[in-house]
UniProtKB/TrEMBL annotation:
Residues 72-144 form the Amidase domain. Pfam families: Amidase. Signal peptide: none annotated. Transmembrane segments: none annotated. Residues 18-41 are annotated as: Disordered. InterPro entries: Amidase_dom, AS_sf. Gene3D superfamilies: Amidase signature (AS) domain. This is Amidase family protein.
Length: 506
């Protein structure tokens, strides 16, 4: 191995001091150790860390018949049950599909795999959906919707700036995910290019890459002070210098257009567009529901005001953005002018000029630079790439990438090559670094919860099974019972329990 690569692997590797556990330096390409145990009840399998294992690694275990999809699902459900609303109370998931339904689907996919039918690289691997993506009503979750095509069930704040994307633990995972997501549908107005299968690339090849000077960190480089900005700059500069030594075709530095170009007379052009489009998107989205008690933005705001103990916690006590969108009175022609200005200033007069003048395929900037804002205004694809993690607290930081419209394959080319060449990403801090929370917190006021459940849970399952289970458990604890109900309990059972026997738990 050349000296420069030995140096890079040492210098760019995540910190191994006390702040970051030893596991953070393990490779994410399959070299992580796994122990195996036999079982006949589909409960146990390889001993891996569900917090850090990638979909690619799980796929390899499935292909080797070292684990089943049922075992994977059971393990993740166990972790969710332990730490989502109990234990460390991460509250990472709003709702979880019923356990019996997830296991049924996983077992079906295991049977297909046994017959040699594999639908794709993500066959049998569970995924998480953001809460603005609706689910099949058969899963019994909060956000269920009827739709004609896949995009019908996705709520966006703005048609101009929002697009569907994916997050993954590795570039290989992201390739598989985006490849599955990028099939155009009839509602995708911007899907003018044919669908392609994305590839995993071992090197940067002929990509011509423009790299921005990290001006936001310049002052700290000059001062020599050891802090987060200086550490970020050092890692960023190492990446740049190593790519130069590798002979990658780069232009450094390139200068991004100024963000002030996205304003008119000093006024933000994003707000009038987003607030105007938000109301239209919300109205269109609500129309897709079979059953809903909410029919407008005003009704949502009033519901939140009527139930502040549920919808307006101390950390988010107001509805400023919702109120601003409701009260927005910007004229349609002014909204159109702001939208056109953003697209022109960020596109033809901004990033387009930079791409064309330097003959670039990709532009790279620090993760907290203006590139993502400019790309969103222009409607260009973007990606995020891990760089390292701060020694002080393990906080990750990375790079932002942008390319021209319909060139997502170039972004994935860079990401997979980067992952293959540079040290593995900094893994999250161990779960043990998160303190355990009080297992018996003071429950929310009972009567508003009871009233809300009885009001909402009448004709359809429109309340979270998780929230309902938490309420029941709190009530039973106060009554001296030790029974704990999990979110996997069948929704119809809970529904009948509450609607027909409400006073049994008062």
């Amino acid at each position: 191995m050349p000296k420069v690569f030995k140096f890079l692997r040492t210098a760019l590797a995540p910190n191994t001091g006390n702040a970051v556990p030893r596991a953070a330096t393990d490779r994410s390409d399959g070299s992580r150790k796994a122990s195996f145990t036999s079982s006949t009840d589909d409960t146990w399998g390889p001993d891996f860390d569900p917090l850090t294992v990638s979909a690619f690694e799980l796929s390899e275990l499935l292909n080797a018949q070292a684990i089943t999809s049922v075992q994977i699902v059971r393990l993740y459900l166990k972790e969710i049950e332990m730490h989502n609303r109990r234990g460390r109370q991460l509250r990472a998931l709003i709702s979880v599909a019923p356990k019996h339904e997830l296991v049924r689907i996983a077992r079906k996919l295991d049977e297909e795999r046994a017959r040699g039918k594999i639908r794709g690289p993500l066959h049998g691997i569970p995924i998480v959906l953001k809460d603005n993506i609706m689910t099949d009503e058969k899963l019994g979750m909060d956000t269920t919707v009827v739709g004609v095509v896949p995009m019908d069930g996705i709520f966006s704040l703005s048609k101009t700036f929002d697009a569907v994307g994916g997050m993954a633990k590795s570039a290989k995972d992201l390739v598989a995910l985006i490849d599955a997501m990028m099939v155009p549908t009839s509602r995708e107005e911007n899907a003018r290019s044919p669908h392609r299968s994305f590839k995993i690339k071992p090197d940067f090849g002929t990509l011509r890459i423009g790299i921005c000077e990290p001006t936001i960190w310049k002052a700290w480089r000059k001062s020599g002070r050891i802090n987060g900005d200086a550490e970020r700059f050092m890692k960023y500069d190492m990446i740049v210098q190593s790519m130069i030594e590798m002979g990658v075709d780069i232009v450094y530095p390139v200068e991004l257009p100024n963000q002030s170009s996205l304003t008119i007379d000093g006024k933000n052009c994003f707000e009038p567009v987003v607030y105007s489009e938000f109301k239209d998107c919300l109205a269109e989205f609500i129309r897709d529901f079979r059953v809903t008690k909410m029919h407008s933005l005003a009704e949502i705001i009033n519901f939140n005001l009527d139930h502040p103990e549920l919808c307006l916690p101390p950390t988010c006590p107001d509805q400023n953005d919702l109120m601003a969108a409701l009260q927005a009175t910007t004229k349609r022609e002014e909204v159109n002018a702001a939208r056109q200005h953003l697209q022109t200033a960020a596109g033809p007069e901004g990033l387009d000029f930079l791409f064309s003048s330097q003959k670039l395929d990709i532009i790279i900037a620090p993760g907290d630079a203006a590139l993502s804002t400019l790309a969103a205004a222009a409607g260009y694809p973007t990606a995020a790439c891990p760089l390292s993690a701060l020694k002080l607290n393990g906080q990750p930081f990375g790079l932002t990438l942008a390319s021209r419209p319909h060139t997502e394959h170039m972004l994935l080319h860079f990401l997979t090559a980067y992952e293959n060449i540079f040290p593995p990403r900094a893994l999250p801090l161990a779960l043990s670094s998160v303190p355990l929370q009080d297992p018996n917190p003071e429950p929310l006021p009972d009567q508003p919860i009871i009233d809300l459940i009885l009001h909402e849970w009448d004709t359809s399952v429109s309340c979270s099974a998780d929230a309902l289970a938490d309420w029941l458990n709190a009530r039973w604890r106060k009554s001296g019972f030790c029974v704990l109900v999990g979110s996997g309990v069948h929704c119809d059972v809970i529904k009948n329990l509450i609607v027909y026997s409400p006073r049994a738990y008062e």
